[in-house]
Amino acid sequence: MSGSAPDLRVFADYSCDFSDEADVVVVGSGPGGAVAARELAARGRRVVLIEEGPPFTPADYSLDGGLAMARTLREGGLRATTGTVMPTMQAKALGGGSLINSAICVKAPEFVLERWCSDYELTHTTRADLDPHYDAVGAYLGISPVPEDVQGRRNLLFRDGCGALGYASEPISRNVRGCRGSGECFTGCRSRAKQSMDITYVPDALARGASVLTSARVDEVLTSGRRAVGVRGRIVAPFTGRASFAFEVRARCVVLAAGCMASPVLLHASGGLANGSGQVGRNLQFHPGVAVMGLFPDPVDPRFGATQGYQSQHFLREGFKLETLWAPPAVLAVRLPGSGRSLEQRLLGLRHAAVWDAITSCHRSLGRVVPRRGRGDPVLRWRLHPGDIPVLKEALYRLAEIFFAAGAVSILPGVHGLAEEMHSLDEARALLRVDLRPGDLVLGGNHAFCTTRMHGDPERGVVDEWGRCHDLDNLYIADTGVFPRCPSVNPMWTAMALAHRTAHAIADRI
Amino acid sequence: MSAAVAGLVLAGWVGWRIWGGYRVPARGKALARRELGALAAIADALFPGELLPRSGSEAGIPAYVDRLVAASAPRQRMLMRLLFFLIEHGTLLFPAPGGLRGLRRCSAQPLAARAAWLEGWRTSALFPRRLAFTSLRAIVTLGYFADPAVLRRLALEPFAIETPVCDADLLYPRIGAPRASIALGPADRTPPSDGTPLVAAPHPERT
Q1: Residue B146: its chain A contacts at CB < 8 A?
Q2: Domain of A493?
């Protein structure tokens, strides 16, 4: 470890243009970038980690869902796909998505990784190959199941419903130590229990001699022939994004971990870099999510409990995973039907409510990240394929089934064209029978993948199995863009495991 | 001559429709008086305060939305303002009941008619219309839930949590401040969270 003061710079510390040099420059401090930076620093490499967003202290958190989204998310939380309109959230903060996600950690199932290997000509990405990397990250972050005493009733009801139906379920494993059940994961953990990157891997990288530049936006990857030689960008003010000083970091190796949306945009902005395959920005996939609210006869008191405490992987091969969910109450209240007095009546019923969701593997629904002219946020073109709608319908029905098995008196499925409140499973069968269009569903797509996918064939993918771009000798990508196909489960642990592997591959080469 | 008079009348009507008659004393940080007035009318239609302690405007929804818009990036700010304009003058596209009176802007409709008209947006067969309303309602609902009295009545107020001081807190200043402003030192570190479940205060209805 380095004994000197940590080299972290925040917006107010910059006073002029500057340049720096490193062995490795890592762009993005989310789960991929933070792991890569720390692992490389731990192997004695001089690392500069660059993050566009600021660090958030607990005093900067806001429990107000709107303000929290406006401050921590790209496009103020209003980012959505075009084609089929679906909101999608990407963070802009030190620690990236780990600051404001619910810390769910699930290893990609063996059958998923087997498919990755067989369909994308990969030979070293089986579960056995990745397990050492999963385990290293898991041990570092203390990934463990949610303890029963902080589950809260809304999570345990899900367990009971699954149990009554014979569906497998289990407490969700998370990178959390000492959860108290505040249900505030999405607005920043005031208990400091969530082991987000900003309080784990990033400080550790700093302690090991890495430099961390925050409020620094990378605009271009610099190259010379087949080699990346550094990055160039601007310092940007928190929240307004107003650009000021210029910076340049020269390095022997460049790692892009800016996220599935931003990394391909950066490659395009750097003169169509690493795009010999023509796949940069293509193949965009999500785990489109749907949710159902259930109302119980007795109070659930949903504000207490782990944000997402229980899950069922029973239907993973059918294309969906079921989870419990809590979010800032205002966000959940948006889906309540009615207005005026009837809406207020519904709001009073929130004490009796639980919300459960499904994330789905919609492999046929593909999209594309398209850069805008200038430096604006990208256009996200994505369309829900009609062939994937039955998976969503089935997922909604299973959620309804679990609710009624757990004792719910009614459910609010949130599907346009159907009854707003259903009082029995018989009624809920309409979810399976109805002919739905994409606009009838309230979708959310927070896991995004594949825009710089790995493929054994350089003609059909952007990076190889170690995250190295096929077209350049020393440009790597370490975010969910490298997934060749959606993983069917929450992606953070897999993204970190792959980044861990990429970091070690880089350390072996330089 | 008559065309000029007709043009003037039309311009006057358009001007009145867009800017006239709002009873809002001052513009906000980001929103004009007309937008604050429209938001107050929408907020009261959605949340009349019949069963809850505050109506939408009493809960400060217009001021909240003003702060939210001010905190947003220019493009999002423009989109939100367009949305408010679309709903306020949406009666020209989708008239409220009441014949010609149904063409008056949303905020000029009587409360019951306004609520019914907004409900028509929520349940519309047209996806873009539903989407516009959902976006508006999301913004307004965020504002309603920002009122502590509303949260208390719904038993959804945040827990009181004493935040531990961890190593990272010695590294990061408040957003906007320089690192030199960090007042915490190693002696300020506290033990990490021990995982003690938070205890909810009893709900007023149950005591």
Answers
A1: 64, 66, 330
A2: 7-55+91-103+106-142+192-282+451-509
Give the pLDDT confidence of B112-128 residue by residue, as tens digits: 999 999 999 999 999 99
Mutate to test the interface with A, among B83, B159, B181 (most CBs of A within 10 A): B159
Instruction: Specify the pairing of strand A410-412 against strand A289-295.
Output: antiparallel
A230 CA: distance to closest CA in chain B (Å): 26
Nearest to A181 by CA among A153, A155, A150: A150
Task: Indicate whether A204 and A266 sit together in one domain.
Answer: yes
Question: For A45-72, how does the pLDDT look when each residue is reduced to its tens digit (9 = 90+)?
Answer: 999 999 999 999 999 998 888 888 889 9
Is there a single domain that holds both residue A112 and residue A157?
no
- Closest to A434 measured CA to CA, from A396, A384, A401: A396
Q: Residue B155: its chain A contacts at CB < 8 A?
A: 299, 301, 303, 351
- A76 within a domain of the structure (yes/no): no
Residue A68 lies in a domain: no
Among B63, B44, B58, B67, CA closest to B153 = B58
Report the chain B residue with the minimal C-alpha distance to residue A201. Answer: B168
Tell whether A78 is covered by a domain.
no
Cβ separation A241–B73 shorter than 8 A: yes
| CA B34 – CA A281 distance, rounded (Å) | 42
- Long-range CB contact pairs, B148-153, < 8 A, 24+: B149/B53, B149/B54, B149/B59, B150/B52, B150/B53, B150/B54, B150/B59, B151/A329, B152/B204, B153/A348, B153/B52, B153/B53, B153/B204
**Whether A65 contacts chain B with CB within 8 A:** yes
Residue B174, classified by CB atoms within 10 Å of its CB into exposed (0-12), middle (13-18) or buried (19+), is middle
d(Cα B135, Cα A263) in Å, to the nearest integer?
A: 28
Calculate mean pLDDT across residues B32-58: 95
Chain B residue numbers with beta carbons less than 8 Å from the beta carbon of A348 are: 51-52, 153-154
| Shared-domain flag, residues A125 and A248 | yes
Which pLDDT score is estimated for B18?
74
Residues A207 and A340 occupy one common structural domain? no
R_g (Cα) of chain A, nearest Å: 22
- ipTM for the complex shown: 0.90
For the full predicted model, state whether its pTM sits above 0.90: yes
Per residue in B158-193, pLDDT (tens digit) is: 999 999 999 999 999 999 999 999 999 999 999 999
Are residues A234 and A268 part of one domain?
yes
Please identify among residues 313-342 of chain A the ones whose CB lies closer than 8 Å to any CB of chain B.
328-331, 333-334, 337-341
- Measured from the Cβ of residue A53, the count of other Cβ atoms closer than 10 Å reads 28
**Which chain B residue is nearest to residue A63, measuring alpha carbons?**
B158
CB contact under 8 A, B198 and A348: no
CA atoms within 13 A on the CB side of A74: 24
CATH value at residue A45: 3.50.50.60
B173 CB neighbours in chain A (<8 A) are 10, 12, 57
